[in-house]
């Protein structure tokens, strides 16, 4: 499932092919993904110039010359492919249409952007650019973890008195935007905090220590996504998936990476999702 760094990598890969370009043709091959597409989506996109491609949490937002903004969400299995335009050092010819190519944008620079989503948990919507903060998917989202509004004071205030496990609190998008399961596991390992510890029982100092760790974990992942783009050999121009070296995620039963720790990484299930942690290093 794409998380914030993967979505940022997709945005970075799409931007040179889409920004400043006009959507000459928009193929919308079915009426819906997770939710119905907006009415007349193809007509509303055709002829629109993409002024800017942004990211908010795990959503890609394309501001259009029509004063509308296109929201793109990759969901669980959504994939974006660029063809007809150089991606990093590699140029990908237009591929033959695939099953599950649900939306295809033909750009004025001959780039083709294909949204393929086998499981259809992804989404696209159109909203007035001026009213995007009121969009139902965006209005309750907390500050961006890499932005200035996310800071020590904010996190301390949000976690104060909270009876939920810290793992669950960090996954709450109202507290911080875009943090998902994988990166929360990594953050808690680096912070030395047990995922089941009650959020409100963690000292202010330790809560504050998580802020730079959250920024570092995400920035490092975005950086490795960026280098994957610069060296984009993948045959079809698909964006956004790259190799990570996680210290706990999906490593249950393996030895903790902390020198001299020697304990095995454990897995527990919290709110229906796996948490991986070291019982020695995380308290
Ligand atoms: Zn350990």
UniProtKB/TrEMBL annotation:
One of its GO terms (molecular function) is class I DNA-(apurinic or apyrimidinic site) endonuclease activity. Residues 247-283 form the FPG-type domain. It catalyses: 2'-deoxyribonucleotide-(2'-deoxyribose 5'-phosphate)-2'-deoxyribonucleotide-DNA = a 3'-end 2'-deoxyribonucleotide-(2,3-dehydro-2,3-deoxyribose 5'-phosphate)-DNA + a 5'-end 5'-phospho-2'-deoxyribonucleoside-DNA + H(+); Hydrolysis of DNA containing ring-opened 7-methylguanine residues, releasing 2,6-diamino-4-hydroxy-5-(N-methyl)formamidopyrimidine. Binds 1 zinc ion per subunit. It holds the Pfam family H2TH. One of its GO terms (biological process) is base-excision repair. Residues 2-122 form the Formamidopyrimidine-DNA glycosylase catalytic domain. The active site is at residues 2-3, 58, 273. Gene3D superfamilies: 1.10.8.50, MutM-like, N-terminal (3.20.190.10). Its EC number is 3.2.2.23, 4.2.99.18. It comes from the Bacteria. Keywords: DNA damage, DNA repair, DNA-binding, Glycosidase, Hydrolase, Lyase, Metal-binding, Multifunctional enzyme, Zinc, Zinc-finger. Its cofactor is Zn(2+). DNA binds at residues 100, 119, 162. Involved in base excision repair of DNA damaged by oxidation or by mutagenic agents. Acts as DNA glycosylase that recognizes and removes damaged bases. Has a preference for oxidized purines, such as 7,8-dihydro-8-oxoguanine (8-oxoG). Has AP (apurinic/apyrimidinic) lyase activity and introduces nicks in the DNA strand. Cleaves the DNA backbone by beta-delta elimination to generate a single-strand break at the site of the removed base with both 3'- and 5'-phosphates. Monomer. Belongs to the FPG family. This is Formamidopyrimidine-DNA glycosylase. It comes from Cognatiyoonia sediminum. The gene is mutM.
